[in-house]
């Protein structure tokens, strides 16, 4: 059975990481860029491990050079997401990859993304919101101009601030300046933690960066006190099971901690992270959760409602998406 048409919400995607390989190959050809080394013979992305994945990801991003490229990227990504029943998506966007962190350049990229998102909403009934992320392995100093871009463009489309990149670089507290700046501007916060780091990384992220959501967070399962704390404080985890299984951040599907976390009362949601890089889609995630843990319509409905409550959008958008979940 397939869950392709079931309505879905996903909170944890990286915009460039959603780029279909054929789209990136097309851009590279137009611009005469040779990035053939990042593809397998069958056309999929090729890499050895997580660090190499980050290098391939950044190589793919070199083809995205202008606001018009990002306009086309958003259109391609949302058409693909909508085909899997996604009615609301949040995506991480990085000013570092859009004009090198310059605020004026960033505004041009953002305008292009927003107009593409508006067109895709009219065409496919999917709403996109952006979360600006600093890149952890670029270091704390690089996070500051990113936070300025976030604060200056916080509004209808940019709805939150977060951090992605190599989790084992530095400690969460090293990035507190950027997160403090975003929080003081009223921005909701999320941060990758507990994908590669242990429960201590999740605990430090909550304590030092005061985020409402954690990207991944699955390694929290190793500390029962932390799991209880996550449940008590209503922290939402953006769980990406297919990504974890593919990158071997956790064991296989049957060993994945999403069910145990949910049983312990932790708010869990389901997302694809970087779907074409990890050979997944939202349909595949739902299908595997149904097959592995016996999840049915009631479970998926609960997951959607948890995601809707944790979404960083305004309440008018939340009400609109709630209707889409009822009537789709
Ligand atoms: Zn991620």
TrEMBL record:
Keywords linked to the UniProt accession: Hydrolase, Metal-binding, Zinc
Q: Give the originating organism.
A: Octadecabacter dasysiphoniae
One GO MF annotation is: hydrolase activity
Instruction: Identify the enzyme class.
Output: hydrolase
A Pfam match is A_deaminase
Instruction: Tell me the cofactors it needs.
Output: Zn(2+)
**Entry's EC annotation:** 3.5.4.4
Gene3D superfamilies xref list:
Metal-dependent hydrolases
The Adenosine deaminase domain is annotated at 7-326
User: What is this protein identified as?
Assistant: Adenosine deaminase
Give the UniProt family note: Belongs to the metallo-dependent hydrolases superfamily. Adenosine and AMP deaminases family.
The organism's taxonomic lineage, starting at the top: Bacteria, Pseudomonadati, Pseudomonadota, Alphaproteobacteria, Rhodobacterales
């Amino acid at each position: 059975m397939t869950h392709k048409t079931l309505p879905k919400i996903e909170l944890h995607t990286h915009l460039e990481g959603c780029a279909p390989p054929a789209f990136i190959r097309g851009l590279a050809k137009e611009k005469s860029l040779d990035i053939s080394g990042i593809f397998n013979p069958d056309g999929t992305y090729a890499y050895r491990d997580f660090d190499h994945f980050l290098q391939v990801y950044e190589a793919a991003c070199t083809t995205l050079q202008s606001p018009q490229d990002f306009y086309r990227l958003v259109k391609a990504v949302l058409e693909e997401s909508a085909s899997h029943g996604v009615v609301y998506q949040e995506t991480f966007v990085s000013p570092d990859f859009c004009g090198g962190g310059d605020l004026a350049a960033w505004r041009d990229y953002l305008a292009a993304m927003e107009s593409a998102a508006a067109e895709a909403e009219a065409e496919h009934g999917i709403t996109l919101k952006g979360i600006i992320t600093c890149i952890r392995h670029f270091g704390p100093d690089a996070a500051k101009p990113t936070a300025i871009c976030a604060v200056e463009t916080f509004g209808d489309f940019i709805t939150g601030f977060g951090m992605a990149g190599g989790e084992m670089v530095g400690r969460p507290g090293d990035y507190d300046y950027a997160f403090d700046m975003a929080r003081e501007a009223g921005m909701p916060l999320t941060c990758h933690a507990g994908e590669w780091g242990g429960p201590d990384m999740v605990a430090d992220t909550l304590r030092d960066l005061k985020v409402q959501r954690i990207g991944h967070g699955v390694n929290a399962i190793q500390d029962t006190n932390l799991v209880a704390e996550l449940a008590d404080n209503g922290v939402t985890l953006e769980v990406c099971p297919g990504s974890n299984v593919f990158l071997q951040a956790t064991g296989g599907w049957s060993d994945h901690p999403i069910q145990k976390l949910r049983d312990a009362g932790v708010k869990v949601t389901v997302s694809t992270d970087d779907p074409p890089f990890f050979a997944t889609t939202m349909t595949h995630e739902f299908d595997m959760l149904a097959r592995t843990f016996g999840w049915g319509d009631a479970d998926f409905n609960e997951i959607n409602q948890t995601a809707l409550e944790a979404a960083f959008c305004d309440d008018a958008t939340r009400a609109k998406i709630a209707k889409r979940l009822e009537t789709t």
